[in-house]
Amino acid sequence: MACPLAQENGLGARAVTSAVFLAVGAGLILHVRRALLRELRQVRRIAGAAQNVLLRPLPPRIDGLDIAAAQLSADHGASIGGDLYEAIATEHGVRVVMGDVRGHGLGAVGTVAAVLGSFREAAHDEAELGGVLRRLERALARHLRERDRAEHASAGPESDHHAVEEFVTVLLLEIRGNGEVHALNCGHPWPYLLTRGRVRPFVRAEPLPPLGPFPLPARLPAESCGRLRPGEGLFLHTDGAEDARDARGRFFPLLPALAAAVRDGPVEPQAVLRAVFTGLLRHTGGRPDDDVAVLVLRNGRRPLALKHDHVSGHVPRQDLSGRTP
């Protein structure tokens, strides 16, 4: 209204006026777009930092074990969800946790943080694997109580709020220096044993109920799972890997995908991980319905070679200097 050209009725004046307003509008749109992009980049940097703290990347090798792990959230654009994993070298062996919180996506992140934080402390502090599991149970119960109080306070004193039943499936493994594996399982899928050209269930025992709805039993003896020999691997996963469906409702063929990944060569954790995620994304069209977490580990330790002298039973001879050749 303040522009003099806007008061003119000529075609040229109108064209100039339109050009001015178009240039101003384009400038404003470009400025807003740049501001939004800057804010989006900042949000992504914050989300990436939060992910690295919560579900931090695992090193490729921990105490002789080669490891590869990744997580895929069902919420579009979210980098973390309701699945969790961690591996820590302790004086008791390498301790591994794989878990799955009820529900998926961003709503389960608080529970993931509570369970993972407890595991990272308890894995070092507790001599027995059962003690680690009890610490996770207490951390989960405390988190749910605090969340319930917060939801009651925000809903007001007149609300008829009831806490939503929540549970977490948890698999704990302890892999000792000699390859012996002990486990405690609360409602989680058992891992698969990977050898060259072969895939089979590692354990067939009945798991305990998930953490949350029911208290743990008084005794928690760890399940002895045998020995993970050099070169052998374990494939740990959440149920989203086996329950993923395609557009026709067919489940993802996890076992054939694993068998193909180890058919022609040694167990390579990164190659197995890549093959499974590639097949799963192709099967679901890039949009899985549930969070998926996968952790692959291989015993990369060298086998202990028996000395020939100890096998034969003879005493090593010495040279004239007194040294054993």
Give a topology summary.
Elements (H helix, E strand, L loop, with lengths): L10 H44 L6 E2 L2 E8 L10 E8 L2 E9 L7 H17 L3 H27 L12 E8 L4 E7 L5 E4 L2 E4 L21 E5 L5 E5 L2 H4 L10 H8 L7 H16 L7 E8 L8 H5 L13
Antiparallel strand pairs: 1-2, 2-11, 3-4, 4-5, 5-6, 6-9, 7-8, 7-10, 10-11
Could you characterize the architecture of this molecule?
The structure is a single chain. With about 325 residues, this protein is α+β, with helices and mostly antiparallel strands. The protein folds into two domains: about 35 residues, no CATH class; about 240 residues, PPM-type phosphatase domain (Phosphatase 2c, domain 1, 4-Layer Sandwich). About 35% of the residues lie in helices and about 20% in strands. It has seven helices and eleven strands. Strands 1-2-11-10-7-8 form a six-stranded antiparallel β-sheet. Strand 1 and strand 2 form a beta hairpin. Helix 2 packs antiparallel against helix 3. The longest helix is centred in the first third of the chain and has 44 residues. The radius of gyration is 28 Å and the shape is globular. About 30% of the residues are buried. The C terminus is likely disordered.
